[in-house]
Amino acid sequence: VLTPDLLPAEVRGADGGDAEEGARLLTLPRAGLRFETLEKDLLIQAMERARGNKSKAATFLGLSRATLRYRLEKHGLE
Fold first, then answer.
1. Which residues fall within 8 angstroms of residue 19, CB to CB, at 6 or more apart?
2. CA angle at residue 72 from 55 to 18, to 5 degrees?
3. How many CB atoms lie within 10 A of CB 29?
4. Ramachandran bin of 23, using left for φ above 0, alpha for ψ from -120 to 50, beta for the remaining angles
């Protein structure tokens, strides 16, 4: 039987889980946070992981390429 733990880390995701599982691990700090800062940080991480490839970065974030470009421009990252 093929189980997720037998798959390479790239297939399972960096933390050994899938993207949906990773999203559930996020917890809002008691003091709150600035959503704009979180969004910008995630965009930067996705672009770094994708080595600048916008199509791949969009896929990492579950966005269309057009939406990724809009958000990059919004944060002055393009």
1. 13, 60, 62
2. 50
3. 6
4. alpha
The tokens of 7 are what? 């798959």
Taking a C-beta distance cutoff of 8 angstroms, is the pair 71, 43 a contact?
Answer: yes
Say whether 4 sits in a helix, a strand or coil. Answer: helix
Q: Which of 69, 62, 51, 66 is nearest to 23 (CA)?
A: 62
pLDDT digits (tens, 9 = 90+) for 32-64: 889 999 999 999 999 999 999 999 999 999 999
- Give whole-number Cα distances, 53 to 1, 9, 61, 63, in Å: 35, 21, 13, 13
Which two tokens mark 9? 């880390």
